[in-house]
Amino acid sequence: MMKRWKHVRGSFFLGLTFGLLIAGSGALRPVGAAVQHFFFNSVRVGDWLGPATDFFGTGDLLVSRRTFTSELVAGALAKPGDDPTPGNIRVRDETGQTHVRLAASEQGGMMTVNATNGVTTVQIIGGTSSGRIILNGQALDLAETFPFGEDTPTPGDVVVIDPENPGQLRRSWRAYDRAVVGVVAGANGLNSGIVLGGNADPSHQPVALIGRVYCWVDAAYGSVRPGDLLTTSPTPGHAMLVQDMTKAQGAILGKALQPLQSGRGKILVLVGAL
Fold it and tell me: Less Cβ around it within 10 Å: N or C end of the chain?
């Protein structure tokens, strides 16, 4: 018995054997004794609705994980056309959790990226005359990857320009070094918010240039209080309290955000703060 399609209000329907289905408002597809109902100009690719199931998305674009590649996940395009309500594109995983969202309105466009728990971690916002990038979470510095020689540092180490290997860095090893660059990022699980350069080469490490980072400090050269200026010390990879401002000219690493009364330890430092 030949099956027939019913079209209502200018809707359309296209079905292919290999999992492509496009349906418009009012299109009906008989499946055995059941009916699948696609509503409001929806588009569905690579997946079928279950028997006797209605799909009521308004302008939704749904893409199955099984379409073309396992990397393709479900998405939704909401409120297109002449609707004055802002339009949205959402990319969801198989559980329906939204991970990427694009939105547009008369005030500008916006892109958000969510973590696995649904919390928005990255926002790119375009206004009528300006734009913003907002990074949320525990990523608090701007870093750039640099090559290192045999003296490979660890997160939290203070690093300087290597005088014997142009273009490379090394751990600091002398006091008031004007070749100071920054602190290797990633100590205590505090990762960089923005990283310039790739990190595929194991000889390259991200170095925090601006922002908050955990840094090794040696208080043997003076107790450190919040707000104190820091510079390089004779202890390899460690900062110390600035006590001679003349020597510190051009050699200031940043400001301490936490105290260190004695010994050696990692404290939160604001690098790039002169």
Answer: N
Domain ranges of the chain: 13-135, 141-271
Residue whose tokens read 């940043």: 254
CB atoms within 10 A of CB 148: 21
Helices (H), the chain: 245-248
What is the model's pTM?
0.63
- Model confidence over 75-118: pLDDT tens digits? 434 334 444 445 677 787 777 788 888 887 777 788 888 888 87
Which CATH number is 141-271's, of 2.40.300.10, 2.60.40.1220, 1.20.1640.10, 3.40.190.10? 2.40.300.10
The pLDDT tens digits for 168-203 are 999 999 999 999 999 999 999 888 888 888 767 778
Are the beta carbons of 125 and 146 closer than 8 angstroms?
no
Question: What are the tokens at 139?
Answer: 């990523």
Pull the structure tokens for residue 267: 């404290």
Tokens of 77: 């395009």
